[in-house]
């Protein structure tokens, strides 16, 4: 069994913000989310493997409050947990699968690490680029993408949804090899 968690903030005022790109990916995979405890959950199967999609109803920085109890109850191992989140250190148009490692100042990942007692879960990082200055970080993640990036982000979200399926069936290495090197800005400029 696997658990795929999207970081984001609940409520319509946050739906189109950069912080919620993880929710966008899960919305490509299912429309059957139902409320349970601190999250919206949907069962999800790919091939012969099955698990859960989770959109925590806690705020972004408290994601661990939803993830850890669910993972423990269902005895989901860390290497079968994938957290999808926005990433300032990647430009829009890039995504990257990663196994464990630093939380790099992401308070949502820190919450998950603290509540699980480990950083060994997997991540799918979706690039949103850096704000014009560090002081503008909060406003940056809580704003939307520029309109000209809409086609690029649509391709990224579609690829991320496909990547989630690859990760669930074939594992982290296969997902990294297939998706980490793609730059969808190049594809967009080539008219793809």
Automatic annotation (TrEMBL):
Site, as annotated: Stabilizes the basic form of H active site to accept a proton: 86
Site (Discriminates between blocked and unblocked aminoacyl-tRNA): 9
Keywords: Cytoplasm, Hydrolase, RNA-binding, tRNA-binding
Active site residues of this protein: 19 (proton acceptor)
GO process annotations (BP): protein quality control for misfolded or incompletely synthesized proteins; rescue of stalled ribosome
Keyword Hydrolase: yes
GO cellular component: cytoplasm
UniProt enzyme class: hydrolase
EC number: 3.1.1.29
Annotated tRNA binding sites: 14, 59, 61
Subcellular location: Cytoplasm
Swiss-Prot/TrEMBL catalytic activity: an N-acyl-L-alpha-aminoacyl-tRNA + H2O = an N-acyl-L-amino acid + a tRNA + H(+)
Single GO MF descriptor: peptidyl-tRNA hydrolase activity
Family annotation (InterPro entries): Pept_tRNA_hydro, Pept_tRNA_hydro_CS, Pept_tRNA_hydro_sf
Keyword Hydrolase in annotation: yes
HAMAP family noted in UniProt: Pept_tRNA_hydro_bact
Subunit structure: Monomer.
Record's function text: Catalyzes the release of premature peptidyl moieties from peptidyl-tRNA molecules trapped in stalled 50S ribosomal subunits, and thus maintains levels of free tRNAs and 50S ribosomes.
Protein family per UniProt: Belongs to the PTH family.
Protein name: Peptidyl-tRNA hydrolase
Organism for this UniProt entry: Meiothermus granaticius NBRC 107808
Biological classification of the source: Bacteria, Thermotogati, Deinococcota, Deinococci, Thermales
């Amino acid at each position: 069994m696997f658990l795929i968690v999207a970081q984001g903030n609940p409520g319509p005022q946050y739906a189109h913000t950069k912080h919620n790109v993880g929710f966008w990916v899960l919305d490509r995979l299912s429309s059957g989310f139902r409320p349970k405890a601190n999250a919206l959950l949907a069962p999800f199967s790919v091939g012969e493997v099955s698990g859960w999609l989770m959109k925590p109803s806690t705020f972004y920085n408290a994601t661990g409050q939803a993830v850890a109890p669910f993972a423990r109850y269902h005895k989901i191992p860390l290497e079968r947990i994938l957290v999808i989140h926005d990433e300032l250190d990647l430009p829009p148009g890039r995504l990257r699968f990663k196994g464990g490692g630093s939380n790099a100042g992401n308070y949502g990942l820190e919450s998950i690490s603290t509540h699980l007692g480990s950083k060994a879960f997997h991540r799918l990082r979706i690039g949103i680029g850096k704000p014009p200055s560090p002081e503008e970080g909060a406003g940056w993640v809580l704003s939307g993408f520029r309109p000209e990036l809409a086609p690029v982000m649509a391709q990224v979200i579609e690829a991320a949804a496909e990547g989630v399926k690859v990760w669930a069936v074939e594992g982290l290495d296969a997902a990294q090899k297939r998706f980490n090197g793609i730059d969808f800005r190049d594809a967009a400029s080539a008219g793809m």
